[in-house]
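Item description
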Amino acid sequence: MKRKVLFLCTGNSCRSQLAEAIINARLGETWQAFSAGTRPAGYVHPLAITALQEIGIQHQGRSKLADEFAGVDFDLVVTVCDSAAEDCPLWLGQGRRVHHSFPDPAKSGELQDFRQVRDDIAREMIALLSNQP
């Protein structure tokens, strides 16, 4: 049985989408990843899609409201907002909670920043999930 992880942020257009896509592509045999936001942007940032395509991941995500997952039991919930000042959401549902800060690449709008955050998420989230008991 696959374990479930939810990646939360504010807009659900960049960081949480990157994490969802990377985990489903790289750890999909053991983990099922989802993403959501407190104030969804309504789209997945095109540069997030481009950054994922560069590493062979075709992501078909959509920007989702965190409330959509209110009744779902997760093994792990990871907030990926850069700081509390960004209104990083609080998860009140099931699942162990972890906060892991990544800068918002949409602030610069530069592909190189999306690449850096993508690579950081891949390295750090794969390590985190691979070491879960």
Notes: The domain at 3-130 is CATH 3.40.50.2300 (Rossmann fold). The longest helix spans residues 111-130. The chain has one domain: 3-130.
